[in-house]
Amino acid sequence: MRVTGFFLGLLAAFGVAQARVAPSDIKGLVAVSDVIVIARVDRVEKIEGVPVVVLAVERTLKGPESKTWGLLLTSHWVCDISTAVPGERGLFLLEPWRKGGEDTLESVPPRLTEQLAARGLGLPHGITHRGRGRMPLRVVGGMEHVAVYGDVAFPTDLQPAVVETPSKRDHGWVRSVPLDAMLEQVHALTSAPPLQ
Known about the structure:
By secondary structure, the chain is of the alpha+beta class. The protein is built from four helices and eleven strands, in the order H-E-H-E-E-E-E-H-E-E-E-E-E-E-H.
């Protein structure tokens, strides 16, 4: 009885551990991404019963050139913020799809991979680091900026500014970096094509 009370006291004092995505930095996100593009979310379609987000690429900064990429946003892990808003433009850092902790899709069905290839959507990808690689484009003070999630760290010479978000539900996306500065950062960390 005393032992149970002791453990309950510890739980009350320290709270229950919560699952969280470990903080990341832009250098790490760029390093683990095999594809980095400026793109628009063209549509979401079901292929072999799996929702696939189709990105229409405007510019490739890292990885093979492609007009489109297919993303699988299947993970249901509590801290996964991977999402796609049809029509949204952004900087997308992508990595090969892998199963998440609470993912409903055990593995990518071979037929899905074939269908993606047949449609020119490449191999199955996801947004890098549980969604932190999705950086929507916004106009701030007349200039294009990328919105970055709150737990992504940046070098001291590129600190995101806090800006008002379009929606109060976007509380994690209140930090923005000028697009030009972000492109220079990505270029410095990769063998991206020269800036124009």
